[in-house]
Every structure is written in structure tokens, then in C-alpha cells.
Amino acid sequence: GGVTLREGLLMSIYGGAAFGKGLDESFVVSEGFALGTPRLDEKVKKYSARDAVFITALRHPISRILSRYWYEGRWEMGQKSDKTKARSLEEWVEANRRAELIARPPARLWSCVSNYYVKTFAGWQGPSMCQPESDPSCVDGVGSRELEVAKSVLARRFDAILITEWLNHPSQIEWLGQIFCFPTNPRVQRPHKKIGKIPFPNMQKKSAPGGHSRNRPISWRPSEETFSELRRLNFLDLDLFEWAVKRTRSLLGALNRTHGPFKPLPEPG
User: Fold this and answer.
1) Cβ–Cβ < 8 Å for 152, 243
2) pLDDT at 245 over 60
3) What is d(CA 61, CA 78) in angstroms, rounded to the nearest whole number?
């Protein structure tokens, strides 16, 4: 989702030269940092003063974790994909939980395996923000209060909450077209050196370089026991994601009535 938004959407609109050029860059992308981290807060303040548009994308929490595992969990990024040296999903999850519980800023949450989104939007900084004795929902540092904080932050501070599984859906493209002022019906076609022409912006799924996602077998699935454990570790994120899907679906439904009809939205996850 992050690469697709950066390269498929923002760099398509503003051009590659507008990214990563310091104070005058047209847009900035931040991945892996929780709100409240000094580095991210500095960027938020700077762009708020420029009346910037703030967008974020949420992916189904379990799908995000499994994708991360195959990207740089089974083998470290850049490491040769040697089957004899592969880590199991369960080993990787446990190793990341241990690392996460001792993490301190400015450590990124790239490989967070427990309520990544709630931690990001509630401003988790390492120490636990809840106590299991008083909050039964407290898991690895966040609980029900942090879930409500995350919902409030998303509702108040972001102009658009995108659903990663819908990035290339016509109704979400229409929404982005209204935000960033590009034509959607019909979408502009731009030349592509390999496949002739592609729609602008190009929101087809993109993979970040250096990982091992391509090695994931189509039929691969974790055990039901592992699925159950991941759901337990991420039930707050699953709640937040369901809330975000419902909110975005409602907005896209309104667009469907005024600018559609669009094909039905699939169930994400």
C-alpha cells in the first residue's frame, strides 16, 4: 500500500522530482513511525501550515502481517532465500513480539505483529499505555482506550482513510480524483515503455524492492492455530479496520449515487 500510494499516486501527480528534496518537496510519505514521534510531528506541523491534505491507507491487519513475513521475515531483506535457513512464521512473530516490547523511539514499527495501527495512531512510544489489571483488552502495550484514541485521530486529523484492498477500485479512484484534481472518467492514459499505456494514476499493486514476497506460494496458509493467535494479538486492530472500512464504504457509497454506478466493493481481507 505504501509503495503504491507513493509511486502510483503521489509521484504520478507531482513527479518524482517533487519527492525527497527537503523543505520544498510537494509531498512527504512517512511509514513505520507512530504519531507523536518527534520526527513525524515535525513533518505534520510543517505541512499543516501549508494546508496539506493528509491521507492514510489501512490494510486488513492479518494480511499485513503475513505480507510482512514473506517480505523480510522468512528471510531478512537482501538475504538469499535459502530454504534451509528460513524462519517459520511462528518464530518470526515471537521474535518480533520480544523486540517490540523493548522498543523505544525512534524505532520504526515496520514488523510490528500486535496492533500496529492502534499503536501508530494512538502514539505508542514503547512503554505500555495500558494495564492488564484494569483493562482486560490490554495487549502488548495498548488497550480499549488507545483504540478509541486511534479512531478519533483518524476521524479528526486525516482527510482520507483509504482501504488498501480497494486502491484500484473505481469509486476510491473517483474519491482520490476529487481530492487531488485529476480526471477519472475517463482516466488519462499515459505511455509505458513495457506495456504500451497505463491509466493515470496507476494504482495497481506494487512491491517494494529487496524483499521476498515473490517467493510466497499461492496456496500457502498458516495453521488455524497461528491464525487464532494472530487474531488474539490484533483484535484491537481488527476492530479499528472494521470501523475504517465501514466509514470509507459509506463515503464511497455516496459517491456511487452521485458519480456511479461503480462495481460493488469487495470484502477486504
Assistant:
1) no
2) yes
3) 25
